[in-house]
Design brief:
alpha+beta; 314 residues
């Protein structure tokens, strides 16, 4: 998920009451909820699609979810001591307890892979022990309804706290509503109507319209279709629409993958790869989850030395 969502989850947990366990609890929760995304630094040394095969891996796996909170807790504890030595420590700050700093940082970090798992991009939850991707197919990567719910609840809770009122209840209610909302969206994605199509099916939530899905269905030879609703019950048209009218037969890429790091990273990451014809007749690989013929496709790799063999037309 996006970092605003991660931050709001950390803030909401704090406003639910656990921020009273130690000083600097809110920074531990909010920073901890974003900390696994330190792997975004890979953009400084990786090019093209190589970042696709690196993100949501090693910093989202079990060892990192222990080490990163430990580092964060140490930095926050050291910051508190540094302020104390300089006489700059805020008088209203609670005593800082290292054990609770670590536990809250750990809780914040755990929320991160839990949220990242919910979308179609995927996450390697067991890295470095296993490079298997896991997919929740439940929420779009940016969910404005969660923003609104958690943002308003956090603001209302902070406002009540400032006025001396009951401030924990709004945050706790918002957490319960958010969990119910996530559960409802999971039920939509994995409804029997979606998963009885046969073959590999991906139910991709839409932005804004979180109750709707783009349903992708795999055909033979890495050929993907989009499930569409018929205009009428007896219009005679297939409900499966080809994802593109420029699809190539899937090429043999085993040899090229050995020498092309961009291709190797793309295929390692891609869940729904398919090939299309470029203007010069070569092949471009896309992922059906993020394919939009009207926009520049950041989730693709061009293979100028591979010739497109178009699928036969019926």
């Amino acid at each position: 998920m996006d970092n605003l969502t991660h931050s709001l989850v950390g803030a909401l947990l704090g406003q639910a009451g656990i921020k009273k366990k130690t000083g600097l609890a809110m920074p531990a929760l909010i920073i901890g909820a974003n900390l696994p995304d330190v792997d975004a630094a890979c953009f400084f040394w990786l090019e093209g699609t190589e970042h696709l095969g690196f993100r949501r891996g090693i910093t989202h796996g079990p060892p990192a979810l222990v080490l990163l909170p430990l580092i964060l807790a140490g930095l926050l504890w050291g910051f508190d001591k540094w302020q104390e030595r300089r006489g700059k420590r805020p008088e209203g700050r609670l005593p800082v307890n290292f054990k609770w700093l670590f536990l809250l940082s750990f809780i914040g970090c755990l929320t991160h892979p839990a949220l990242d798992w919910l979308n179609v991009y995927g996450i390697r939850l067991l890295e470095p022990f296993s490079s298997q991707w896991f997919y929740g197919d439940t929420l779009f990567i940016i969910d404005v309804w969660l923003w609104a719910l958690m943002g308003l609840a956090t603001w209302f809770s902070l406002r009540r706290e400032k006025k001396g009122g009951e401030w924990m209840k709004p945050a706790r209610v918002a957490i319960a509503v958010a969990l119910a909302y996530i559960g409802l969206n999971g039920a939509i994605s994995f409804s029997p109507g979606v998963n009885t199509l046969g073959g590999k099916v991906i139910s991709s939530p839409l932005p804004l319209k979180s109750w709707e899905r783009e349903v992708l269905v795999q055909g033979a030879g890495n050929y993907w279709f989009v499930l569409q609703k018929p205009e009428s019950e007896d219009d005679g048209q297939s409900p499966l629409k080809p994802i593109s009218d420029r699809v190539c037969s899937w090429p043999d890429l085993d040899e090229e993958r050995q020498t092309n790091s961009q291709l190797d990273a793309f295929l390692f990451w891609s869940r729904a790869p398919f090939a299309t014809r470029a203007e010069d007749g070569s092949v471009v690989l896309h992922d059906a989850r993020f394919y939009d013929p009207r926009a520049r496709d950041r989730f693709s790799v061009a293979l100028p030395d591979v010739e497109c063999v178009e699928l036969p037309r019926d």
